[in-house]
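ugh ok fine here u go
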Amino acid sequence: MAARPEAPARHEFDPRGRGQWARMIRDDGDPAARVLVGTASWTDKSLLDSGWYPPGVSTPARRLAYYAERFPLVEVDATYYSPPSLRTVEAWRDRTPAGFTFNIKAFSLLTGHPTPARSLYKDLRERLGPREGNLYPRDAGPEIVQEVWTRFLDTLRPLHEAGKLGAVLLQFPPWFPAGEANRRHVLACVRRCLPLRACVEFRHHSWMEEGERERTLGLLASHGVPYVCVDMPQGHASSIPPVVAATADLAVFRFHGHSEKWTSKRIEERFAYLYSQEELKDWAGRIAELAAGTRTTHVLMNNCCADNAQRNAARLSAMVAEQLGAAQTSTEPPVRQ
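structure:
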């Protein structure tokens, strides 16, 4: 059974000096306009095989345009596996309408994950010499890692300059526990992304354990860094509890589902989960409560198996809008973060 999300945490933050980070799809006073709901993919094979795209929508340009007609936000996870080319990023920019938002998952090497040598930029592979298997930052060395940071972020600038880049997702690995050195490393990665905005997702349980949770959220809040609230299978070393918290003017939610095969190496099995109406309704209330006090809220469905994410995202979006509409007619003022 899915763990119930915990009550939203309240953290003060000072957005002054970070104005270049904050942007809204609209600023018309409607809270629902500040909640962007989307999915973590629009091109994975199981989605293409599901029939979600109608006949004739069979090219990259048409698929992205079709997706962008239905959702205002998407997360690009392919960038975790291989850095995108400038031409690809420019195509994303040009194939989407004004106000559409991309969140970009950081390349694996930048967050300390195992990275196939073949996925590095060609000239950097040649500089390293013949390599097989996976690399870690220590294998590549600081100069090459810094060069990867520079190229990766520079490639995203067309989206940033067009106002279409929401945040760079820094997802740290399951073997990255809470501790003073790792806290400093998190902030260093966030600073490296500037002037692009970064949000942070943890995968080691220690960051959200009792006694460490407030320290983690307080650290992020004191630097205006969005904490990524997650819903995911529990009982694993990588499990983070469903803590709902805003640590910046941007709140981010990622929904991974509750597959019983979370440890499977097959992506389709790990994320094979369809949220029920009851689960979505429960989460819609939590999201609406937090969104009432934040400038912008991003909600990403990452249960990317067939069209599960798209179906859940559409329903959740409607539910959150209903919740926020009800709050607008209430005599109780919205809770501010």
